[in-house]
Design goal:
32% of the residues lie in helices and 23% in strands. It has 10 helices and 15 strands.
Length: 344
């Protein structure tokens, strides 16, 4: 069934201004109070990733148990946890922490952990009953992966056999919520409105004989005539380095800084790419698909999308998974263009 996101929340939460997701909170609270599953559809910019987990920490059914929220990408997991800690006026590792591969920041009082999808599988191996966990949130479930699907299947099995009180919340911006709700025994679907500003889309065909990276670099130089910072989507680190070299050789306007953002960078360099540009300066962020969801990069007003993404493909012939460069899906393209309208 589909529940209306009724009610109005008038107070500010944890120092954060009211966001569209606050309108959906009464329906979401009701669904998880009277049931054990819910699906939340909320477009980019609604505030679901950082507002919902903090609000649900106060629910009576949770008690002293913890919330675990799964994020498909490490940079998004760390950024979401840091944002929620700032909203609480705390440091990471107090109420909010995170666990990703080769990096963990949690403490004895941590009640909300943001983890990457493979971490949940390891949690289940160490504690099959998820004893001290009251709610598992699958964020950005539309990205779909083997880890996410396996995690959901195993969590449903834990609830069926050991923990009938374990709550599950699946959140997505573009996935069909009704279809997912069927996997959760007809869980209610709560729909939140978004808050995005109008975005104008311009298409630039690539001239015959022109390399894609050269075309992207040309569009970046053209887009610098617009106001605000730029977020540029490229399929991988190699393409990012190529465009970075092309821009270094070009005469960019004074005060423009080019920064990469991809999964192999250190946490410090990723944080630098996500931070707002200094006053009087502008930033061009060259990113892979890790910037597609869950992240708001302060100051971005223009998105340049190369139209490609790199995805894992399993080969039955070799029994191995390799990365393949493909055209972006319509859903991914919509997510990317929406980054330009997050803040203005």
């Amino acid at each position: 069934m589909r529940a209306a996101a009724g009610g109005r929340v008038t107070s500010e939460m944890h120092g954060a201004a009211l966001l569209p997701i606050h309108e959906a909170l009464p329906a979401l609270r009701s669904a998880l109070t009277h049931g054990v599953s819910a699906v939340l559809e909320a477009p980019p910019g609604a505030g679901k990733t950082t507002v919902v987990p903090l609000e649900l920490l106060k629910e009576p059914w949770l008690g002293e148990r913890r919330i675990v929220m799964l994020e498909p990408r490490r940079v998004a997991a760390r950024a979401a946890a840091a944002r929620m800690a700032r909203l609480l006026g705390e440091s990471l590792g107090e109420t909010v922490g995170y666990r990703v591969r080769q990096d963990t920041v949690v403490g004895p009082k941590t009640r909300l952990e943001v983890v990457t999808e493979g971490v949940l599988t390891r949690m289940l191996q160490h504690d099959p009953g998820l004893t001290d966990i009251g709610l598992v949130i699958f964020d950005e479930f539309h990205e779909r992966s083997l880890h996410a699907d396996l995690g959901l299947a195993l969590t449903l099995e834990v609830r069926r056999l050991l923990r009938p009180d374990l709550r599950l919340l699946v959140m997505s911006a573009t996935l069909d919520g009704v279809t997912v709700a069927q996997l959760l025994d007809g869980a209610p679907v709560i729909v939140s409105a978004g808050r995005t500003h109008p975005v104008e889309t311009r298409h630039r065909p690539i001239r015959e004989g022109t390399r894609r990276e050269s075309a992207v670099a040309g569009v970046i130089r053209e887009a610098l005539d617009e106001a605000g910072d730029l977020l540029v989507f490229l399929p991988g680190a190699r393409e990012i380095r190529n465009v970075e070299r092309l821009l270094a050789a070009a005469a960019l306007p004074s005060g423009v800084r080019v920064v990469p953002l991809h999964g192999t960078l250190s946490a410090a360099l990723q944080d630098d790419a996500l931070a707002a540009a200094q006053p009087g300066r502008r930033k061009v962020v060259l990113a892979t698909a890790i910037a597609e969801t869950s992240l708001t990069i302060d100051g971005v007003r223009v998105v340049v999308d190369a139209g490609l993404m790199r995805v894992p493909r399993f080969s039955p012939r070799t029994g191995m998974t390799r990365l393949e460069t493909v055209r972006v899906t319509r859903a991914s393209a919509d997510q990317r263009r929406g980054r330009a309208g997050r803040q203005g």
